[in-house]
Amino acid sequence: MITPLESAGASGWLGTEAGSILLVFVVGLAATLIIVGLYALGIRFFAVGAPDVRVPDGDDPEGPTAVVAPRETPRPLPATMAGLVCFAGVAAAVVYGIYLVIPLFHGK
Amino acid sequence: MSPGQPTRFRYHPSIGVAVDLTVLVPVLLVVALSIFFDFTNGFHDTANAMATSVATGALNPKVAVLISAILNLVGAFLSTAVAKTVSEGILAQNDQGLPQITVPMIFAGLMGAVVWNLLTWWLGLPSSSTHALFGGLIGAAVIGVGVQAVEWGGVLSKIVLPALLSPFIAGIVALAATYLVYRVTKMATVAGSSTAFRHGQTVSASLVSLAHGTNDAQKTMGVITLTLIVAGFQEAGTGPQLWVILSAGLAIALGTYLGGWRIMRTVGKRITDVKPPQGFAAETSAASTILISSTLGFPLSTTQVTSGAVIGSGLGKRLASVHWNVVTRIAFAWVVTLPAAAVVGGGAAWAASSGIAGLVVVLVGGLAVCVGLFLLARRRPVSAENVNDEAVDADRIGQRQTEGERA
Q1: Would you tell me how many other CB atoms lie within 10 Å of the CB of residue B325?
Q2: Which residue in A31, A36, A71 is closest to B292 by CB distance?
Q3: TM segments (chain A) (predicted)?
Q4: Is A70 exposed, middle or buried (0-12, 13-18, 19+ CB in 10 A)?
Q5: How far, in Å, are A9, B55, B301, B368 from residue A15 at the CA level?
Q6: Which end of chain B is more exposed for a tag (fewer CB within 10 A), N or C?
Q7: Are the CB atoms for B151 and B90 separated by under 8 Å?
């Protein structure tokens, strides 16, 4: 859980501000990488059994040069489960985000 | 209230009693201009949340601005904590916790903010509305009261330092996120990935909109409440009244709905051509950076975080190009926003301090500039229909820039 820092006093603001900026950066980087990583993994799991879009290196996978093939085998149950776990993690992060936005929920 | 202030600023138990018109007229002008500023704020900042969603086709442009408008309106009602402390730490306060600023000065400061917001909108530049507001108020306070009316340490730590750092923070986070997303989904060639990224992006962009509403509508409420307190219509230390919350929320929502298409095009298409994985990475980085920074008591500007994240997502994709000339223009606008709004606000404060006649001059002059910019914008309009069309160009400066990009 993230706890709010006490606001910086008139003295020593530079040290405190630099500290909280660094904290925002570290927490923001970690949280973002976990969320987007989980989401991308979920996409990978859900795509098990479906061939990748074939596209020349560096081209747009939705562009005119892309070749989309139909699914070859149905998705195995473990892949579905793993994908759902990933997406559930992302959903939890979104709910926590809404909780953070609405001050009513945390008494501020 | 300081002893130097005239006695007419006494608390009126009810507005129904005979009120000095020289007090009431400026207050009404400030309320009207605050609501107009709030409108330009929504108008200007629609791009923050929705530019990349529109650019990637995750949302139809009209649907995007509708969602953003509703979430901004909802956000305005969620909290009024920021509204109470809008000028805290920026403007020096007296022993009653009120800044040493008069109603005409607030009016002048708002005029500076509105003029600057509309100018940067016409140029299609995503500059911070908050910086414009504080810049205008600072300029007005310096001219009207003196340099001691501003807490310069607070300006440095609450505005200048975050402004310098937030694009880099958001940019690096988005760069890493974009790289990771492209690695995991094999350059988005995994089946269904582009569609999934569009859905994910819609959710993150909505969170950004909601956070924007809880922050930015508050600032206008804070200014109106501050004015009512300074003029003696409301007790010091009380929060915004219902009609203030309602009108601020509606103004920002309407502004958001009408949409600053010019700025959207800059953020979504001209910094870098945002693709679904990049849009997802950029909006998610922006959402988490904004939420974490405000939770940790160090709120960063929504505008600067999103723009930084878009630049980062451009750098994080292999072979993706970032148009540095566009970025340079945006960075320039960020640097000059506060001083420029301060100069306009200061000039307006100088004129407005001469009394009602001066106020009228500021009002007419400011309105003339606003109407002029709207008319200029109509010559090369950017709308929901052509927001993603790279053939059109918003202004003459943009035209030159495009030629530079081709070279």
Answers
A1: 13
A2: A31
A3: 20-41, 81-102
A4: exposed
A5: 11, 40, 21, 46
A6: C
A7: yes
**Can you tell me the mean pLDDT for B69-92?**
79
Q: Are B263 and B47 in contact (CB under 8 A)?
A: yes
Q: pLDDT band at residue B45, thresholds of 50, 70 and 90? A: confident
**pLDDT of res. B85:** 65
Best residue of B56, B79, B159, B184 to probe chain A, by most A CBs closer than 10 Å: B184
pLDDT in the model for residue B339: 92
Residues from chain A that touch B297, judged by Cβ atoms under 8 A, are: 4-7, 20
How far A53 CA sits from the closest chain B CA (Å)? 5
Contacts of B157 in chain A (CB under 8 A): 8, 13-14, 17
CA B112/CA B140 separation, integer angstroms: 9
Query: Using CB atoms within 10 A of its CB, is residue B138 exposed (0-12), middle (13-18) or buried (19+)?
Result: buried
Query: Does residue B37 register a pLDDT over 90?
Result: yes
Q: Which residue in B187, B284, B294 is closest to A36 by CB distance?
A: B284
Q: Which element (helix H / strand E) includes A94?
A: helix A77-101
Q: Return residues 53-82 of A near B (CB < 8 Å).
A: 53-55, 58, 60-62, 68, 71
Mutual angle of helices B161-184 and B302-316, in 10-degree steps: 40
**What is the SS3 string spanning A15-52?**
HHHHHHHHHHHHHHHHHHHHHHHHHHHHHHHHCCCCCC
B296/A51 touch (CB, cutoff 8 Å), yes or no: no
pLDDT reported for residue A6: 45
Is B32 a residue whose pLDDT tops 90? Answer: yes
**More confident site: B176 or B8:** B176
| CB distance B100 to B92 below 8 Å | yes
At residue B407, does pLDDT exceed 70?
no
| pTM of the predicted structure, to 2 decimals | 0.85
Q: How many of the other CB atoms lie within 10 Å of CB of B219? A: 23
Closest CB to B296 among A20, A37, A104: A20
Q: How is chain A split into domains, by residue range? A: 15-54+68-106
State the count of interchain CB pairs (< 8 A) between A and B: 158
Task: Name the residue among B202, B209, B247 with its Cα closest to residue B70.
Answer: B209
Give the three-state DSSP class for B329. Answer: helix
Would the CB atoms of B285 and A32 count as touching at under 8 Å? yes
